[in-house]
Every structure is written in C-alpha cells, then in structure tokens.
Design goal:
CATH class of the largest domain: Alpha Beta
CATH superfamily of the largest domain: Vaccinia Virus protein VP39
Strand content: 15-25%
Helix content: 40-55%
Largest sheet: 7 strands, mixed
Length: about 400
C-alpha cells in the first residue's frame, strides 16, 4: 500500500469519536487502537496476490477496511446491529454528489434545531442520563436527532453520514470521561462545562471530519453481515484465504454497555432489557440480565479438554473467592463459545488459508488465564496446522498481561 492509500485508511478508520474499549483511551470509534491497525496492515502486506479476507468479529471494520484499501475483497460479521451499521458506513463508497447533498442536509437539519417546528427525539432510557448530558446538551441532541430524521432518511447514504457525525457530537457534548479503563463522569462542579460552546458548530465540524473520510474510497469490495460467529456454516459465501480478527477478550468487559449511547440514540436499543439480551447472545461480555443467567448456566459439554484450564477454573471457583463460581462459569462459557466459533470457521476456509487471532490473556483472583494457549490447543484439536503463538505487546502496567497473535493454517 502506498503512503497516500495508508493515510486514506487512517482517515476512514478514524470515522467517529468514542471510547476505545480495549485500551480505555479516548479515541475514535474503533474497537482496536492504532497499534492493531498497524498489525493488520503488516499481516495484509504478506499476501502476495489478491485474496478473500474474513473478519468474524468486525468491531468497526478495521480488517475489512484495510483489506479493501489493499484491493482485496472482504466479508465481516458481527452480532451487534449497531456495529454492522457502522462497518457498512465505513466501508461504503461515497460520491462527491453524495457529500454535497449531505452538507446541504446538514444545514437544513440545523435550521430546524431550536425552531420549535418539530418534536424532539425521545430521550434514551439510560440510567442516570443526567450524568451523561447536561439538560442543554440533551435538548440540543433531541432536536438534532429529530431534525436529521426529518431531513434525510436514515437508510440513505446522506442520512448515514449525518448519523455518524451525530455519534461524534453526542460524545463531544457529554460529561463522560474516557481517560482510563472504566468509563467515568465529570464531578458535579464540572457538569456545566461545555454549555457555552456552540453545539451547532460542533456538529458541523464533526460532519466535515466524517465527509473528508467519506471521500477516501477503497477499491476492494466489502460485505458486512449481521450474524453469529458460532454459526458460520450457515453463511453461503465463497471460501476465504485469510482471516484476521480480534475476538472479544476473556475479561467480562461488556461492549454493549459502552456502546449504549449510540445504540439508544440511533434506535438499535429501545429499553434496558434489550442491552442485556444482546450481551447474553454475544461472546465475552456479561452485564445486566446476562450476569444473572450466567449464574445458572451449565454447558452441555466441555469443548476444550485442557488440564491447565480445569486447574485454573478450580482455583477461580474456590469458596474463598466471592464471585468465583460466576467467573469460572464465565470462562467456561467463553471457551465453549470460542471452540464452537473456530470449529465453524473451518467450513468457510479455502485450502491453504491462514488465520490470525489477536487475543489477550487475563487474570482472575490472581490466577493467570493463558487465553493464547487455550486458542492454540483448540486449533490443534480441530485440525489446524502450523500453529504459532507470538507475543505482541504488554496490555498495561501488569507485566503478566500480554496480547498475542495466535496464527495457524488450514490445509
């Protein structure tokens, strides 16, 4: 990839403003930080000819977008409808005419904000929503969301670009702080900060940022599919020669929880129970009703025959650990889900395909869960070859927490 093309990829990858879910840093709405983008690029460059690329956990389409900028065709799946929508927005091609119409629609929408001519959008049912937004910001966002809907249909490219800019704006106007692993909110003395800013100008600036990225069109084709990664054999797709993905980590971090603001405001969630239901269907995260169900969950069978895993689970589930049984169940379910996914992955791979899984290990009550070795054992059990585990980087200040590239081939 030439440097201009790489810069175009970065522009698209930086589409919207959000919390970086894996690092806790304030970044753009991508679930992988900059180093992961570089890693994807490094792996992609190893392909000597055009190849079909697959990412079963699309996040915000880093892999698919990189593949498309390298001229490869790609497909990506996710169980979260918001992420599927965002991935489609990021990998689509936009014309100058579309960008021009979007700018006009922006001004038409902003003319309606505060004019009293439309009913504002319903405020999302987020618990303690006043921690997220001051009353003035909530009023603006409600007007803006309704104005966008009145001006340009959500399903159009113009409506999509306006909504991406809206996602940036709703976080820019919020009281949320993203400078550490767990999201927090500004204290009561800071809640009025930002009111003096011109919200309309914030939205215009965000839209211009999005439109600059929209004009950096990739050459490859990308198909984004709403689908469960444990059921890949049901997809009718041409075989893939390369898989690059970063699956959910075994750390109980709920991706649904952190994506709630976007999902509620754009209508992907209607009520709090919806978030818990989706978290229960996903791999890796537990929150809300998903946690209560996990307490009662029992596997039909254990899908990974690992003595190391069993010893770790026995230690974690010790009565000395307050939530040990729950966390042991969580890990068991995570491993079973990943096993089912990897077994299904075989059905859509071409002969000679290579796969790369970017995973991080975890600790529970001081017990190290060697996730990378569990992945390697599963791959061996189900027939993959040339399995390698390569450490990439430390995850944080804890020396034992590392991210790995677990790679293998399918013959």
């Amino acid at each position: 990839m030439t440097q201009p093309a790489h810069d175009q990829l970065r522009q698209r990858a930086d589409y919207t403003h959000s919390y970086n879910l894996k690092t806790g840093r304030h970044g753009w709405l991508r679930l992988t930080p900059a180093y992961s983008l570089r890693l994807v690029e490094e792996i992609m460059k190893q392909a000597s000819s055009k190849v079909r690329v697959f990412d079963p956990f699309c996040g915000t389409a880093t892999t698919a977008l990189s593949a498309a900028y390298h001229g490869h065709d790609a497909a990506t799946t996710d169980i979260n409808p918001f992420l599927v929508w965002l991935a489609r927005a990021k990998t689509a091609r936009y014309s100058y005419a579309t960008v021009s119409r979007t700018r006009k629609a922006c001004e038409d929408a902003l003319a309606l904000v505060g004019a009293g001519e439309i009913d504002p959008a319903q405020v999302p049912p987020i618990h303690n929503i006043e921690r997220w937004w001051h009353a003035d910001a909530l009023a603006f966002l409600g007007d803006l969301r309704a104005a966008i809907e009145c001006t340009m249909p959500f399903q159009t490219q113009e409506g999509t670009l306006l909504c991406v800019a809206f996602c940036r704006t709703l976080i820019a106007c919020s009281n949320a702080a993203f400078n550490h692993q767990s999201m927090s909110f500004k204290n009561s003395s800071q809640l009025t900060l930002g009111i003096q800013y011109e919200f309309k100008e914030i939205f215009r600036d965000n839209l211009e940022f999005v439109l600059r990225g929209a004009l950096q069109n990739p050459t490859g084709e990308v198909e984004t599919i709403l689908h469960d990664a444990r059921l890949l054999s049901r997809l009718k797709l041409e075989p893939f020669g390369l898989v690059i993905t970063s699956p959910p980590y075994a750390n109980r971090m709920s991706y649904i929880r952190e994506l709630r603001p976007y999902m509620y405001w754009l209508g992907f969630l209607q009520k709090p129970q919806d978030a818990g239901e989706l978290d229960w269907l996903a791999i890796g995260g537990t929150w809300g009703i998903a946690t209560s169900r996990l307490n009662k969950w029992k596997p039909a069978r254990n899908r990974c025959n690992s003595e190391r895993l069993e010893r770790t689970l026995d230690s974690i589930s010790s009565p000395c650990n307050a939530n040990g049984k729950l966390l042991a169940n969580y890990i068991r379910k995570y491993v079973n889900d990943i096993y089912e996914h990897l077994a299904e992955l075989r059905t859509i791979l071409a002969s000679g395909a290579s796969i790369h899984y970017i995973v991080g290990n975890s600790t529970f009550y001081g017990e190290l869960l060697p996730v990378e070795l569990i992945y390697a054992q599963i791959l061996d059990e189900i027939g993959f070859n040339n399995i390698e585990v390569r450490p990439i980087r430390k995850r944080n200040s804890k020396k034992e927490l590392i991210e790995f590239d677990v790679s293998a081939s399918w013959l």
